[in-house]
Automatic annotation (TrEMBL):
This is ATP-dependent RNA helicase. Residues 682-693, 773-782 have a biased composition (Basic residues). Residues 285-440 form the Helicase C-terminal domain. Gene3D superfamilies: P-loop containing nucleotide triphosphate hydrolases (3.40.50.300). Residues 1-29, 511-547, 669-793 are annotated as: Disordered. It comes from Apodospora peruviana. RNA helicase. Its EC number is 3.6.4.13. Residues 718-727, 739-750 have a biased composition (Acidic residues). Residues 20-29, 528-547, 669-681, 783-792 have a biased composition (Basic and acidic residues). GO terms for biological process: rRNA processing. PROSITE patterns: DEAD_ATP_HELICASE, HELICASE_ATP_BIND_1, HELICASE_CTER.
């Protein structure tokens, strides 16, 4: 007994603590199980059609979802939410249709969160829910809403929309429970990413389902569904839902509930939307649009156009004419980062005009848009409904105007009537009409790049009309193309060539199919050409691509590569450039012998073999002399890297010893100056390093562990505007947009930070610094242009360049 004494004492000391914590854990687990069981029973007993379901509070939701909804200020259910959520909670497949802006996003996100919660989903269970969107913009928006209402859940969630390296995304996919994606990119991952599959998927959502089931996405969606288990729940939502039996079969829906919140409504569009159309001949369209913008300078406007080229031309030319309202433009050919930034800027703007293609026609929820202008007739009534739906969202009011060419009026009105769209004709006030043809002409004359865009816009517009399948609306033969070209300010009508007997539908979808198969959705842009096979890109290629950021680039590219980006267009319609006399001579001469200048040498191209050489820069280099490095002085004169001064010149400058002393003095001064700069730089670097370390530390503390995996906050912050923001994130650990302000307020206790440095500040220290800088520059003979803000657009850069040219 005595021997056993101490052992038992240890056992007595350790055992109660251990059993206490195990006990509390068991109790907690039991409570969760009981709560879950209660929730399941309430859902079983729930009457999905009960009129008493008015608020989110009336629904059997778990505490995490309920509090997330409350914190996001969602209280009262909208019609579609009241109709769809109870049925979805009960596990039904849903085909949901409701007007634009009526709250369909929550109608599927709430069931998604609830489903995974009730299944007690953890990181180890893999992908539980997949939400598919037709465009990147819409996917980002859905993800944002998911973050808001899912903030108290521990699921991990990610955004898979392309624009990032596949490998980077792939690394985190395995850990994701909920993914919001575009079809092509998702398919790519399911096909290629090792260790990632959808075998366990519980719920699949298709937002803008009719679009996703459409021809352009057909093969991607079918292949994607092949990767998913048939036992899943499926929810389809759209403002314009089709009940095509074939679609339902493709998705293996099981006895789907058709939920239509506004089926009995007299109109397919929101009641608080005022809809008008004007009949305007194609050649007067830009005048009318300009007049409209000039009279609505303090409104928030979206102008829909049929192609990215139209968007670019109108944006660039109107920008030069300075309408007095901020202009933005958005189309599927822009880089992902630019698209996100423009979307963010327009969402935040109080007023401004966004020229856009149908890339933002569906689902995108820009707040407080006053007007939707459809300057180009949409391809069908459904597209019309989605476009106008960007205004008058939820309970707000909005106005929409459709521009119709006289040839389109009768046919399109018939289509709208059929879809229950109430629209009335209005006329533009005479005193608001103004021709801008002269201005456009002079812009085209002054800037070849804009003229080039105009030609492209002309071609893409005529092409899109020609390709439209609804010939009762789009009558290509009745368009006055000469007048249209003149109205764009073009010096002549671009000649176009038709390819007869083409399968129009196939051509129209070619670009989308190609984009999807390469995994990067073009997102509704009708003018995106088929993607080319991956080729090795040289530094030179990258340079021309970089130029592609501005309006001049495609012009340059055209010069360099002649139509590389227009492959699709050239298949069908293209400019037949009439060669000038000089060019004809050149062309004739080209048959005989060509002379290519390589540095100081001339290379005669007189055979096919030599001509082939021109396609390889590497091979051409062999014909050039070895390069020598030159340095340029301030006047732009080239010098050898080391130039020895002649003895005569040297002795003219004074005795050698004196010159040596002078030289040492000058160098010492330079070193001292450089020393100060170096010290400042080193200090700044140390500070940055410290800040980074702190941020990392904070990030690790804030990062939430889900199933034992800790993801540093720095990697998760999708709000960051950095280009390499991480689209994959844990729901719970992300800061909410509205919480950001709170955090900023909390920081008020900290000592006041030094005012952020603008380009030029005027406190005395900075003045002194500026003065020193000025003197230094003066000494070196460099010109300094002072600007009150950083140049962030072409106009700013032009102003800066003009300043530099003036002397
Ligand atoms: N229950 C609610 N209470 C208050 N606001 C809501 C509610 N549900 C949705 N909203 C708001 O209504 C707006 C439109 O919602 P949402 O984007 O889901 O519409 P939608 O039906 O998907 O539109 P679209 O057909 O254009 O995609 C959003 O700004 C959203 O925040």
């Amino acid at each position: 007994m005595t021997q056993n004494g101490p052992k038992s004492a240890i056992a007595r000391r350790g055992k109660p603590t251990k059993s206490k914590s195990t006990e509390s854990r068991t109790l907690k687990r039991k409570r969760v199980e009981e709560d879950l069981e209660k929730l399941r029973i309430t859902i079983d007993e729930l009457d999905p059609k009960s009129p008493s379901l008015k608020n989110f509070n009336d629904l059997p939701l778990c505490a995490a979802t309920a509090s997330g909804l409350r914190a996001s200020h969602f209280e009262v259910l909208t019609d579609i939410q009241r109709a769809a959520i109870p049925l979805a909670l009960k596990g039904n497949d849903i085909l949901g249709a409701a007007k634009t802006g009526s709250g369909k996003t929550l109608a599927f996100l709430v069931p998604v969160l609830e489903k995974l919660y009730r299944e007690r989903w953890t990181e180890y269970d893999g992908l539980g829910a997949l939400i598919i969107s037709p465009t990147r913009e819409l996917a980002v928006q859905i993800f944002e809403v998911l973050r808001k209402i899912g903030r108290n859940h521990t699921f991990s969630a990610g955004l898979v929309i392309g624009g990032k390296s596949l490998k980077e995304e792939a690394e985190r996919l395995g850990r994701m429970n909920i993914l919001v994606c575009t079809p092509g990119r998702m398919l790519q991952h399911l096909d290629q990413t090792a260790g990632f599959d959808g075998d366990n998927l519980q719920i699949l959502v298709l937002d803008e389902a009719d679009r996703i089931m459409d021809m352009g996405f057909q093969s991607a969606v079918d292949a994607l569904v092949e990767h998913l288990p048939k036992t899943r729940q499926t929810l389809l939502f759209s403002a314009t839902q089709s009940k095509r039996v074939s679609d339902l079969a493709r998705l293996s829906l099981k006895d789907p509930e058709y939920v239509s919140a506004h089926e009995e409504a007299p109109a397919a569009t929101p009641t608080n939307l005022q809809q008008n159309y004007i009949v305007v001949p194609l050649a007067e369209k830009l005048d009318t649009l300009w007049g409209f913008l000039r009279t609505n300078l303090t409104s928030k406007i979206i102008v829909f156009l049929s192609s990215g080229k139209q968007v670019r031309f109108i944006f660039e030319s109107f920008k030069r004419m300075q309408p007095g309202i901020p202009l933005l433009h958005l189309h599927g050919r822009q880089k992902q980062v630019a698209r996100m930034e423009i979307t963010r800027r327009f969402a935040a703007a109080k007023y401004g005009c966004l020229f856009a293609t149908d890339v933002v026609a569906r689902g995108v929820d820009f707040p407080a848009v006053d007007w939707v202008i459809q300057a180009d007739c949409p391809e069908d009534a459904d597209t019309y409904i989605h476009r106008v739906g960007r205004t008058a969202r939820y309970e707000s009011k909005g106005k929409a105007v459709l521009f119709l060419d006289p040839s389109e009026e009768k046919g399109f009105l018939k289509r709208l009537e059929h879809k229950k769209v109430p629209i009335t004709k209005v006329n533009v006030k005479e005193n608001k009409k103004k021709s801008i043809t002269n201005e456009l002409q002079s812009i085209c004359f002054q800037s070849p790049d804009v003229k080039y865009l105009g030609q492209k816009a002309f071609i893409s517009y005529t092409r899109s009309v020609h390709l439209q399948k609804d010939k009762e609306v789009f009558k290509f033969d009745q368009l006055d193309l000469d007048a249209f070209a003149a109205s764009l300010g073009l010096p002549g009508t671009p000649q176009i060539r038709y390819q007869k007997g083409e399968d129009v539908k196939r051509l129209k979808n070619a670009s989308r199919m190609a984009a999807i198969s390469s995994g990067s959705e073009s997102d509704g842009d009708s003018d995106s050409g088929p993607k080319k096979k991956e080729v090795v890109r040289t530094k030179y290629d990258k340079m021309t691509e970089r130029q592609n950021q501005d309006v001049l680039s495609s012009h340059y590219r055209k010069v360099l590569e002649d139509g590389e980006d227009d492959a699709e267009e050239d298949d069908f319609l293209s400019v037949k450039r009439v060669l000038g006399d000089d060019e004809l001579d050149e062309a004739a001469g080209a048959k005989e012998a060509k002379v290519v200048k390589l540095g100081n040498q001339e290379l005669i191209i007189d055979s096919k073999r030599r001509e082939k050489l021109l396609s390889s820069k590497k091979k051409l280099l062999k014909f050039m002399d070895k390069p020598t490095k030159l340095v340029f002085d301030d006047d732009g004169n080239a010098h050898q890297l080391y130039e020895l001064q002649g003895l005569e010149d040297f002795s003219k400058e004074g005795p050698a010893e004196k010159l040596r002393e002078k030289f040492v003095e000058m160098e010492a001064e330079k070193v001292a100056e450089q020393d100060v700069e170096d010290k400042q730089l080193a200090k700044a670097k140390r500070k940055a390093k410290r800040d980074k370390a702190k941020a990392r530390e904070r990030g690790e503390l804030e990062g939430e562990a889900v199933g034992g995996v800790l993801v540093p906050q720095a990697q998760l912050d999708v709000d960051s505007e950095e280009e390499d923001e991480d689209p994959l994130a844990l729901l719970r650990s992300l800061p909410m947009p509205d919480e950001k302000d709170d955090r900023e307020e909390e920081d008020d206790d900290e000592p006041p930070k030094k005012k952020a440095k603008k380009w030029f500040q005027d406190d005395s220290e900075d003045e002194r610094e500026k003065e020193r800088e000025r003197k230094k520059r003066k000494k070196s003979g460099k010109k300094v242009i002072e600007m009150d803000h950083e140049p962030d657009n072409l106009q700013d850069l032009e102003a800066l360049a003009a300043g530099l040219l003036e002397d």
